[in-house]
Request: fold
Amino acid sequence: MNQQEITLDQVLSQQREAKREIVNVDEPTAKLVIFELQGEWFAFQGEKIREILSQVDVFFVPGCPTSLQGVINVRGDIESVISLHELLQLPESVDISSSSYLLGSGAGMSSTIRVDKVVDVVDVLLSNIHQPPTTVPQHLREIVSGIVQFNEKTVTVLDLDRIFADYSHGLG
Amino acid sequence: MALDIKKFISRFVEEAREHIKRLGEGLDAMSRDSGDSENINAVFRSAHTIKGSSRMLKLSAITETAHKMEDVLGALRDGSLHYRPELGSLLYRGVDAIAVLVESLAKSGDGATLPPVNEALCASLAQVATGELSAAVTQSSSIDLASDGAQLTVKSTPPPLATPTLPAQAKLNTADTVRVRLAKLDELIKLMGEVVSSHATLRQRLHDIRVIERDASPESWEQHWVRLHHFGLTLRDDVQSQELLMDELHDKALIMRMLPLAMVFDSAGRVVRDLAHSVGKEVECVVSGAEIELDRQMIDKLSEPVIHLLRNAIDHGLETSAVRLAAGKSPQGRVILSARQDGGWVVIEVADDGGGVPVEAVREKALRKGFISADQATGLSDQEVVDLIFLPGFSTSAIITDISGRGVGMDVVKQSIVDDLQGEVTVETRLGVGTTFSLRLPLSLAVMRVLLVDVNGLPFGFTAQYVDELIRVPHEEMLTVVERNAVIIRNEFVPVVALADLLHAPKRLGKTTRSQAGTFDHGMLLVVVRVRNEKLALAVDDLLDERDMVIKPLPEHMCQLTMVSGMVITGRNELVSVLHAPALLELARQARGQASRTEAADHAGAQGTAYKILVVDDSLNTREIEKDVLEAWGYHVTLAEDGMDGLQQARAGTFDAILTDVEMPKMDGFTLTSMLRQEEEYRDTPIVIITSREKEEDKRRGIEVGADAYIVKGDFDQNSLVDTLRSLLG
Reply:
């Protein structure tokens, strides 16, 4: 069929094309875990997130600040559950039954972070991650490390180390 | 090829520590029975071994000291020298000197940096060996202080006194590693093997059920039902045997974490001698109970508080020889470090036979430093005053010494015992007789007996050592006192708080507890927790379980939650917070403080005149509640803990009215009342008896001895108390 009609010239030019592509692919990328909170998209750097858990039971611990929602059992290890809603000044999610939990470590501690849902885990070209614009609200300036476009939505990349540092100094 | 000596150093240190320990024990035994030739032989051999092996590594300072000791011990062995206490203390000093050298070697790992030998000590030992005891002992004691001081790490600050004092280097040994007996490890490995083979059995079962599944067809259902039933039975047996195995494995693994208290206690003798030496006091240290085993996590955290208590005993507790002689005591002070098991607890006591805590001096100082107000100062009982020493920044020593008295420490002791080790600290003291600090600790922080309760459908745990009792009380027995609830349990007021309110526990949706359902509603279910002599009754919905459970720590960043001491996992894989009773009491106290303050503000205008009332009751809770009620109505309240105390307080001050319990230690309320009536000052003062004795004859007796009113705790109502007082005071 069509295959028989390809000339030698065409084959050679295809090969050249292929070689050139191999040389070009070397731009550094970063892995991002993109998640949704109250309809907005955020992300953490992939190397900070050890595991994504879903369908877990969260247990109440008395005396916690509101942003610490309790603890979960990760194969015998007790991990806390942090909610970012307060920090990001978003309304608290009502139904948490379909939530996911990102188990992250940074700033010398580990904890899970409750998110409404995980959108995707993607490799993004570093050059596509932009500095946060100066219009970023005051309450976010400390913890936002960049902005990236994904699937025609703006994703705010958050700095897990900065968020955790506040907790390791005294429960947020 | 050059021999690498460093490799041998650590082996030598291990060996030398062992022998130093034996030397110490041998010398102790010698001081009790100097004629035991077998013991002298053993001590001699230890000194000889240290000499020999240190010489091989060219550790001349150690060799020299051990050699001189060996000479003296040799003379003791062949009878040319006889044991005397002075000789014993010289030998102790020799052992201590070797120990200091060995520890310094352990730190540097290099024989070349070893401190020089203590010449004066060696000279004394040499003299003793040739029989010139008296000269040597007196000479050595004057030189020793200076030369020992030079050997130890000297702090940068110059000594405050003219005589060179020794910055006491007090450190007990703790271990990074645990030595486990091979037999214990073998047992564990054997068990592990069993678990592996038991897992293989389970895999076989899985295979079995697959076969049944494959063969199953609707036609042969009956036959398959038999096979299935059989399968169920075998699986049940397997699970049961696995369970036994797991329990055993768990127990065995936990035992490996247990270490004898000797880890902390063994070096105590030396620490005491060092410290005593540096403050110029004669102290004997008696150690017992070192064989008791505790979780290693606790052993590690125990050494600091124990050291501090020893320091405190030597520096503050014991008097100088001169003072002791004047008081008719033996010139040598005694510090007893002991441990014993008491139910699920281990009690460690540091006792001295010194002068006791000067209660009045503490009271005065607390007042001067602003820890308490003048009103409080007069109102506090002696025990409460003594407890002030645990406040941060409190130190009673008139002179700040190098060893203790800088005003840090006692609060740290309390903090590490109460917060880190889940234990309790108490102090008992008698003027002129001595002071005893008791540390009550759980055996292990890893496994504890836990009581699980249900609150709003959520489970919570209590470690059993804090639970005093569980009771069900009818709703009508609840009393309202100063806007909060209380019940009377055996002649004592116990405040009641709903655990759900205290914890701000959310309601779990879709789950009704038994008591909410109403089927078991015979009253309130109360968990009475006790911390020292303070009680709190917590209303819960249901009891769930009580058994030994593994306590898991919270993540580190959550450790500031004082209310939760750890977590346990239930059979249904739920995580349950184990509540820390002392923190709950504190929380309840804060809530109460606010309530009584608002009420006090309500009544302040109405009352106006501030009458002074003395409240006598042996129950702390009852005293506190009566105090709160009365203070809420604007009265000034002073507390006394028994009849005798009440009488003394009454004589020391003037009161407008006295409230007393009947059953109390030392002196009961009837006697107190009749005694007070004999005093000129209290002939007409209103006296109210508050008791749980309802019998008519008791009431009559109360009136006979001169009480003005008799209130039965059962029908206690704060208004009746206030009304009675008001009518009596006019």
